[in-house]
Structures are given as C-alpha cells and as structure tokens.
From TrEMBL:
Keywords: DNA damage, DNA recombination, DNA repair, Metal-binding, Zinc, Zinc-finger. Belongs to the RecR family. This is Recombination protein RecR. May play a role in DNA repair. It seems to be involved in an RecBC-independent recombinational process of DNA repair. It may act with RecF and RecO. Residues 81-178 form the Toprim domain. GO terms for biological process: DNA recombination; DNA repair. A zinc finger (C4-type) spans 58-73. It comes from Desulfoplanes formicivorans. Pfam families: RecR_C, RecR_HhH, RecR_ZnF, Toprim_4. It comes from the Bacteria. The keyword DNA damage applies. GO terms for molecular function: DNA binding; zinc ion binding.
Amino acid sequence: MVNLPQPLQDVVERLSSLPGVGPKSALRMAMTLLKWPEPQARGLGQSILSLRENLSICSVCGSLSDSDPCSICADPRRETGQLCVVGEWDSLLVMEEAGGYGGRYFILGGLLSPLDGINPGDLELEGLRTLLAQGNIGEVILALGTTGDAEATGSYLKNMLQKEFPDIGITRLAQGIPLGAEVKYMDRNTLRQSLAYRQKI
C-alpha cells in the first residue's frame, strides 16, 4: 500500500503475509492495534515472542508442546499399543476434543501432494519408523481424511507398514453416512465409502 508511514507499512506487510489476510484486512488490523492501549499492544507482541521461544516440537510424536515429551506422550494412562497417525497438529486437537480415543499420536507434518511438491521425503516417516521399531505398538490408526492427498498418503503408509512392520495391524477411521443423515440425501462418493466400510451388527 502506498503513502503509509513506514512503521505502519511494515506492520501491514507482515500481517498480510499471514494465510487468508489481504492488504486491506492487514491495514484494518494494524489500525486496530494502534487504537489499543499500549500495555495491550505490548502484551500481544510479547505473546508472539513467547510463542516462538517457549513452544517446541515433541521428539516422540511431533506435536507442538511447551514440554518434551508432550503431555500426551508423557501420560502413563495412555494406551501405548495404539498409535493414531494424523497429518497435522490441528487434527490431533480435533481428535482430542472429540474424546473417545485414549492412545498415542504421531504427526506426519503434512500429506503427500506431488502437485504441491510434497513427497515422502518431506514427511516425518523416519520418526514414525523409529517409534514403531520400539515394538510396543500393535495397531496403527490412519486418521488422514478422505481427500485425494489423504487417500494417497494412506495408501503409501499402508504399503510401507505392511512391508516393514508386518505384525502391526493397520486400521483407518470409519467413513460414510454421518449420524442423523438420511441415505436419500447422500452423495455417491459417501454412499460408496459407506458400502465399502460397512460393519457387522
């Protein structure tokens, strides 16, 4: 943006580099920060600095944490025989909020996407191999989603695990018709998945 005082221009440029924030939104944010009392604005700046200084990556699962290992990996009540593999940290958060899972996690750091230049070497596969080689895990749960990238990643992991760790069971999250929905309103892909992963009752 032109004709902005340089300090304001600097903040606008930094804010507009955030995902989903354009120059106009960045300018509105910067103007809001200018209206804040100085202690509040300084507090935000300090929180950002603290975020970088005090967060680390868990050496076991790859999660963001303020301790290493993270609280989930360090929790003795967790089921050590189950490992839920997710693409990113926010997927772990959603799984934890949903409840019902008491095992451990591993974060791949993304999904395979050749079009975006994300190949197997870009994922944390060595960390996954190291964890599985300890011999404590009997089941790997693939919780990657149903996008094309997620399916490709799941297929790659399945092949890798079957070849390198044949004694470990591999499962995936159930897919299909959500609770409260009627069959007549489902799209074809959802119905196909529901039939493919039907369960005995």
